[in-house]
Each structure stands twice: as C-alpha cells, then as structure tokens.
Amino acid sequence: MVKSLSGEMPFLEHLEELRWRVIKSVVAVVLCAVPCGIFWKRIFDIIMIYPLRFADPKPKLIYTSPAESIILSIKIALASGILLSVPLIFYQLWKFVSPGLYGKEKKVVFPVVIVSTLFFMAGVTFSYFTFPFLMKFLTSFAADRLDPFFKAGDYFGFLLKISLSFGVVFELPVISYVLARLGLITAGFLMKNFRYALLGIFVLAAVLTPPDILSQLMLALPLIFLYGVSVVVAYFASKEKKTS
Hints:
With 244 residues, the chain is mostly helical. It has 12 helices and 2 strands, in the order H-H-H-E-H-H-H-H-E-H-H-H-H-H.
C-alpha cells in the first residue's frame, strides 16, 4: 500500500529530498564519465564501429564542423557515465519512492534496485547485439543508388536513443512487480487489457525507433514478450502480497 506523503513529509521537504537525489545521481554520472572521457576512442570503437560490421556497403563516419569531434567525445563520456552509474540512479529513484511505502514494501527496495539494473542492462545489451543486423538492413536498402556517409554525432544519437529505449522498456516486468505489490494492478487486469497494450506497444515502437518496419519490430516483439512476463510477475507478486 502507498502511504499519503502529506502525512509523512511536507511538500517542500519532499522537493528537497528529490533535489538531493538528483544531485547525487548527477555527481555519480560525472564521476563515471571522467575516465570514460579519457578512453573515449576505445569506447568509440566498441559502441560505434561494432554495429557496422555487417553493413554493406560499409558506411563512412564523418563530421562536418571543427568542434564536432570534441562534442562527440563528451557525449560518449556522458552516455558511458550514465550506463556505469545506473545502479546508483535506480537506488536514488527507489529511495525517493520508499517514504510513501509501508514497512513490508520497503524491504523489497534493494532487490528491486538490483533487478532494475539487470533488466536495464539486459535491454541495452540486447539492442547492442541486434544493431549489426539493423544496420545491415538500413545500409543495404538503397545500396545500388546511395553511398552511406554517416555524420558521427547523428549516428551516435541514433544508437543512444535505441539503446536507452530498450533499457527503459525492459523495465516493464519490474514496474509490473512493484505495481502489483502495491495492489494497483493484477495479472487479470493485464490480460484483460492486452489488446490495448498491444496497440500501445506498436505506437511506442513507432515513436522510439526510426520509420522502418524492422526497427519497430525489433522493439515491439521483445515488448510483447516482456508484457507476457509481466503478467506472470504480477500474478506471483499479488500472491506474495496476500501471504506477507
């Protein structure tokens, strides 16, 4: 059950708590980004060259302004810093939510942080290993008419958007567990509304991915599977709540 925050913590104190949680998360990102900035070229090879290994013709990465390579190195450092600090970011998020929970629900905060991190990284990893197939499709689509020259900053933004999208959507079972523990959803509710969820999944996939069917299916199919997992998770979470 969720407790009324007004009875536990004044609104301004709650905002102050949020501010410090955000500050701690930002500090963690910056601290993790510093070493990533030092080795940004190695990270560049890992995250930007690997997805092109099946591409035919092989794209040429370019930049079109004098400072773009420096800006790209900063973006790579910050993105890598975010990935490295994901456990602490989730910890700050769930600690911010925990004052509104009862004692029994608070006990699951730390396990939820661990599982949230694992699912997020699983989503990013899944996208990383499917990138080569996506890039092969995209580069070969007009191979007989157009030569691929990718602006490095735009290409990195493309990879980052899809990676973070997968990381977020892979949190669906975790969110379902928490909501079921709070009594806000049940497995029956998720099954009853599957048709609406299916529509929402394809709309979300269309918004988060490039306008091609392969990219959309690449996100939509795992989401459908994760929705099924969420039904099972919600069922056991509801039973766990009743017996606790």
